[in-house]
Amino acid sequence: MKAVFLTAPGKFVLQNIPAPSLDKPTDVLLKIQAVGVCGSDIHYFKSGKIGDQIVQYPWIVGHECAAIVEAVGSAVTAVKPGDLVAIDPLVACGVCDQCRSNRRHTCRNQRFLGCPGQMQGCLSEYLIMPADCCFPFTKRVSLNDAVLAEPLSIGVYAVSLMNQRQDTSTAIGILGCGPIGLCVMTAAQAAEVKAIYATERLDYRLAAASRLGAAWIGNAEKVDVVAGVLGQQPCGLDAVFDCSGDQQAFDQAIQLLKPGGTFFIVGIPDTDRISFDISSMRRKEIAIQNVRRQNECVEKAIALIESGKIKTEALVTHQFALSQTQEAFEAVADYRDGVIKGVIRFD
């Protein structure tokens, strides 16, 4: 089978390797149909690491994928050959304290697709995953819809955390309108948040946020976004989601939040350390909530996709063949040609 290996920072090579085969009775053999290029993949592409997760070359990246079930192990009943499935890229041990506390996403023994030292990623024609990571679609959807289930599930999880913390959230901020920011926006709209204030440095992504229903948009490099938002919401926002990983956005979030508000960190910063204005945070009693992956929200994301509430035309802007993986990653890394979500299609 064909697989794409990251062989050095910024360098992919297409190779032929043996196809995997079923081993465990709970395994599923998947024929990959589409892979989304994620921001975390771009970290590995550009620098070869995220924090202490360092790529040992050669390595296959990628974790957002839609696939057709090719074959199943003898104990698998939830999916069958021919099913179109979305993949939860996290394989949890199921027995540690975190798994027993319904926190599989922080499993102490987890393996994650494309994560260095854990599992090779999904930029290959075939892949083996446990059945409990495979979620079938019950309605006909496009491959672009299907591949969005994983990033959308992160947005769904982030919004669910907000709902757990706050009785009502009438006004929220989303800082960074890339794919994850727009997925958070879609999930927030499905949760009936009344007003969403969006900031971004790229005008074309702000335009996408506006098309998706943002109440207010502002370019963080061209306007005073704090003054702009507080001019509309003088008391501040109930919650702010950072989907940029940018220090300036972190500073703006603290200013935008009302006393008792919550700051949700969804994006992955480029640096290993960030800072906060602790005086403002303390006086306003701001809570910080990190958002770690999707925590059992893939099925909820699939339901949202199948409902037709998500508008994929605003998210999937570019499609590439497997042989164009290098071009796809360069386009996303450099924000070329109005790219929001790049998808590598195997068809």
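[next item in queue]
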Amino acid sequence: MIGDEHILDGCFREARFNGYVLGEIHINSSKLIPNSRRDDFIDNQTKTEFYNMIDRDIGLPLSKEIRLRSRLKSQIQPTKKMQLENDHSVEQIKVAERDVSENKGSKEESFVRPSAEMILAEIFEKCGEYKKVKEIKEKYGY
């Protein structure tokens, strides 16, 4: 075991994102050598390549996913609240969600945003057996 729970903080866009995910990385390389304190690896080209790979293949995609989910949650929640308070039709909600999705994020994030229909389909697929979900599906015609 090398380092502590903060060893990969620098591989995420925001250090706090490292605390949002759990996992282990098993390394089988004689070129990646722990230092004497075992709080990191000896500085060499392999260490640099290792951290660059973690940043590129794990940190960056997870950071984008966390930001996306946070943005969707903050943008869709007011829409759902409005639906409950004013009993808007499903079509009005879809129009509002489409307007939200058309306001794209910054240029640095060039990933595809899931539509509200995709999100609802996933929720219904995973939670479809629950009574409340069945009621919602029936009420709104999904």
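[queue empty]
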